[in-house]
Amino acid sequence: MLGLSGGIDSAVVAVLAVDALGADRVHGVGLPSKWSSDHSLADAQDLATRVGLHYSVVPIAPMVDSFHEATELTGLAAENLQARVRGTLLMGLSNQHGHLLLTTGNKSEVAVGYSTLYGDSAGGFAPIKDVLKTLVWDLARWRNEHARTRGEVEPIPQHCIDKPPSAELAPGQQDSDSLPSYEELDAVVADYVDRDLGMAELLERGHDPEVVARVLRLVDGAEFKRRQSAPGTKISLKAFGRDRRLPITNRWRETLPTVREGAATR
Ligand SMILES: Nc1ncnc2c1ncn2[C@@H]1O[C@H](COP(=O)(O)OP(=O)(O)OC[C@H]2O[C@@H]([n+]3cccc(C(=O)O)c3)[C@H](O)[C@@H]2O)[C@@H](O)[C@H]1O
Ligand SMILES: Nc1ncnc2c1ncn2[C@@H]1O[C@H](COP(=O)(O)OP(=O)(O)OP(=O)(O)O)[C@@H](O)[C@H]1O
Ligand SMILES: [Mg+2]
């Protein structure tokens, strides 16, 4: 089972699960909140109909409101409540029915910690945790093309592929508000994580110095999230957890003296 947001990550994970297990063994749940777009529900429903998985909807706004009445969380903590209510509900359903909850984080998000702990990172298996976001889009296009050549219905609605990625935790939010473009981010993650290049080599390869400094800081700082995340599939040279754990190297820090000494070795 998985949360179906109408976004590309949950769409690709849902289709992977249906291909692997059969539609009758896959349960998608739409969990709209106050800030969910209309297309979130429409695209989730469209995908569910195309692939024939079990689909249900549980609006979470009343539950999120109850938390707000009982607490005084603001800013990011308040936004993250939506992801945490979803994680709690999905684990409740998993617990009730004996389903395995699939968590949908991709390698780009896992790299920089772009997920809510005990929220969208909840789950027992992470099928795309080693798949960079740009490759998630490639996979989606490839899967639809595969269906077309066989005269089958394309499983993934084109709108899921075309729309900008968004956590939909705040009005109009887009991933690009908080992160470099996925093209830039994935290029740096591939060189830093998979190829194990240091700061000097990353700059030599022509990456933007500000993006490099930011991404390296985020990647090192997100180790605590990766240490408490679900296992998943390995497809790249270096999968987090299995092939790469901090501490690994201090090389890039030697060229970036402003970063707190020793953070990567703790
Ligand atoms: N080294 C460390 N060891 C243990 N704990 C550490 C820590 N560093 C920070 N912390 C603590 O971790 C907490 C911060 O982590 P957390 O509560 O998870 O939340 P946080 O990382 O602050 O926020 C989650 C981010 O992910 C984004 N997000 C969330 C959900 C879904 C999606 C999406 O793409 O759909 C994106 C969201 O917009 C936001 O930018 C704080 O309490 C902080 O003090
Ligand atoms: N409205 C929602 N209903 C159900 N699940 C949701 C909802 N919003 C988020 N989720 C869950 O949280 C996950 C993380 O959200 P995220 O936005 O990173 O992925 P996505 O929506 O699948 O793709 P994209 O990053 O392209 O928006 C989703 O894949 C889904 O499992
Ligand atoms: Mg989304």
From TrEMBL:
GO molecular function, one term: NAD+ synthase activity
Keyword NAD belongs to the record: yes
Enzyme Commission code: 6.3.1.5
Residue segments, region Disordered: 156-178
Catalytic activity as recorded in UniProt: deamido-NAD(+) + NH4(+) + ATP = AMP + diphosphate + NAD(+) + H(+)
Pathway annotation: Cofactor biosynthesis; NAD(+) biosynthesis
Enzyme class, first EC level, given as a word: ligase
Keywords from the named record: ATP-binding, Ligase, NAD, Nucleotide-binding
Gene3D superfamilies: HUPs
The UniProt record lists the keyword NAD: yes
Superkingdom of source: Bacteria
Domain NAD/GMP synthase span(s) in chain numbering: 2-228
Family the entry assigns: Belongs to the NAD synthetase family.
Record-given protein name: NH(3)-dependent NAD(+) synthetase
